[in-house]
Amino acid sequence: MKKLVLSATLLLATCAAFGNVVINYENKDDRGYFMKVKIDGAYKEVKIESGSRAYITIQGGNSSCYFVTSCGEVEVNTGDIITIKDRCITVYKSLQQNY
């Protein structure tokens, strides 16, 4: 029984250690982009569809990431809503976060 409880605890701790950033975006531009994102010190590219609203999941071990744009780096947390206009990002913070 102790092994079962210990195994379940380790499994839950392992699952909780891997975080993803899930955001809702609205692209107000007429074209789509591949945007560079920094999460856990690594760079990834995400596809932003043209003139649409969608959810996007960025795989990583953290609940926040940085979008690298020509307007600078923008921190985005899980649950945030972002608006993209002229390749620049505006972030609306989620009320779910503990700031």
List keywords for this structure.
four-stranded antiparallel sheet, alpha+beta, 99 residues
Write up what this structure looks like:
By secondary structure, the chain is an alpha+beta fold. The strands form two sheets. It has a four-stranded mixed β-sheet with strand order 4-1-7-8, with no helix packed on it. 16% of the residues lie in helices and 52% in strands. It has one domain. It contains one helix and eight strands; from the N terminus they run H-E-E-E-E-E-E-E-E.
In short, what is this structure?
This protein has 99 residues and is α+β, with helices and mostly antiparallel strands. 16% of the residues lie in helices and 52% in strands. It has one helix and eight strands.
